[in-house]
Specification:
By secondary structure, the protein is α/β, with parallel strands linked by helices. It is built from 15 helices and nine strands. Strands 1, 2, 3, 4, 5, 6, 7, 8 and 9 form a nine-stranded mixed sheet that branches.
Length: about 325
C-alpha cells in the first residue's frame, strides 16, 4: 500500500493538465498513487491523460458528476495513510510532498497542512500569498474563511475514513471550508512557510464561478460561520452575521460602503467577538485580535485609494491593526 494518495480531478483542462500531472510525477517523494478522475471533460483532457504511462496512476473516466461528487469518489478510492489534493491547472513545487510528509512526521497530532502559494495568470500577474502558519492563527482565520489552501492540502486519510468526513454538496463552491473545519476538530493544523504551489488564476476556476451569485454565497458561507461560532459558544444575530461575513472575503471587504457609522459598527463587533471568545477560553485571544487586525488592514488597503483617509483613521492605529502589521511582518520573514 502506498503511503500517499493524490486526488486530481479534471474537467476541461486540456491546456494545463499535462503540466499538473508532470509536476506530481516528478516529485522528490515517489511512494504515492495518483488518482486522476476525468469528470466528463468535453475537450482533449481524456486523451492527454491516457498518454501518461506510469504505474502510479489510477485513471477514472466518468460522466460529469461535478467537483464535490468527484472529490468524494477520490476519497473513497484513496488507500494511502495520507491524502493530498491537486488541481488540474496548478503546478506543484518539486518537493511539495516531501515537505508536507516531514510536517506529519514531526507532529503526530497533525491532521492537515498546506502552505504558501504563488498566484499567477496568463496576463503576467504573479503574487506570493502568505497564509497563517500556526495552529492558533489558522483556527482564528477559520472563523472567517478557510486557512487551508485546498489544492495544496495534505491530510490524514485514516482520520477522514474513520470519521466519515466528506465534501458536502450543500456547500458548493465553499465545500473545502466546511471540510477542513470538520477535519480540524480531530487534531492540529498548520501551514508550511514555503511556496509549494503555483496557483493558476483563471475565469473558469471554482473560486471565480462561486463569486457570481452573491446571495447564495452569503447564505452558504454564513451558515458555516454559524456552525463554527456556535461551537465556540458565540451566537450571532442577523446584523452581526452580516458584519462577520463582510470581513470574511477580500471581495466583500472591497465592496464595503465606508462610512463613520460602518467603521463604528465593525469596531463594536470586533470588541464583541473578542469578549465572547475570552469567555470560552478555546481561542488564543492575541491571535484573534491580530486576525481581526488583518481584516482592518484590508479595509485600509482597498479604501484609502478611494479618498476615504479621514473615515479610516480609527483603524490606522487601532491595537488590532498594529498587532496585525507586526505578526504579518514576522510571517513574511519566516517564509522561504
Amino acid at each position: 500500500m502506498k503511503l500517499l494518495s493524490v486526488i486530481l480531478p479534471v474537467y476541461n483542462a486540456d491546456k494545463y493538465v499535462s503540466e499538473a500531472i508532470n509536476s506530481v510525477l516528478e516529485q522528490s517523494f515517489s511512494d504515492f498513487e495518483l488518482i486522476i478522475i476525468n469528470d466528463g471533460s468535453i475537450d482533449n483532457s481524456r486523451d492527454i491523460i491516457k498518454k501518461f504511462q506510469d504505474n502510479r496512476i489510477i485513471f477514472i473516466d466518468q460522466p460529469n458528476k461535478g467537483l464535490i461528487d468527484t472529490l468524494n469518489i477520490g476519497l473513497s478510492l484513496s488507500k494511502g495513510k495520507y491524502i493530498a489534493r491537486m488541481d488540474a491547472d496548478d503546478i506543484a513545487h518539486p518537493k511539495r510532498f516531501e515537505f508536507q510528509l516531514k510536517a506529519f512526521r514531526e507532529d503526530e497530532h497533525l491532521v492537515v497542512c498546506s502552505g504558501g502559494i504563488i498566484a499567477f495568470s496568463p496576463d503576467g500577474y504573479r503574487k506570493k500569498r502568505y497564509y497563517p502558519l500556526s495552529d492558533a492563527d489558522m483556527r482564528n482565520e477559520l472563523l472567517f474563511n478557510s486557512s487551508i489552501v485546498h489544492p495544496l492540502a495534505m491530510f490524514d486519510g485514516d482520520i477522514v475514513r474513520k470519521n466519515n468526513i466528506r465534501f458536502d454538496r450543500n456547500y458548493k463552491f465553499c465545500e473545502d471550508y466546511k471540510f477542513f473545519y470538520d477535519l480540524s476538530k480531530y487534531g492540529n493544523i498548520k501551514n508550511i512557510p514555503k511556496f509549494l504551489l503555483s496557483y493558476r488564476m483563471l475565469p473558469s476556476s471554482q473560486t471565480s464561478i462561486g463569486s457570481n451569485n452573491s446571495i447564495d454565497r452569503y447564505n452558504k458561507i454564513s451558515s458555516i460561520h454559524r456552525i463554527i461560532l456556535n461551537d465556540y459558544n458565540i451566537l450571532l444575530n442577523e446584523s452581526r452575521s452580516k458584519l462577520h461575513y463582510s470581513l470574511s472575503l477580500s471581495s466583500e471587504i472591497e465592496k464595503l460602503q465606508i462610512s463613520n457609522m460602518l467603521i463604528d459598527d465593525l469596531l463594536n463587533y470586533s470588541r464583541f467577538l473578542v469578549k465572547a471568545a475570552k469567555l470560552n477560553e478555546k481561542l488564543v485571544i492575541i491571535s484573534l485580535e491580530a486576525t481581526i487586525g488583518e481584516k482592518f488592514l484590508k479595509i485600509i488597503f482597498f479604501h484609502i485609494r478611494r479618498g476615504q483617509l479621514k473615515t479610516l483613521r480609527k483603524l490606522f492605529f487601532h491595537k488590532f491593526t498594529l498587532l496585525a502589521v507586526f505578526k504579518r511582518l514576522i510571517r513574511i520573514l519566516k517564509y522561504e
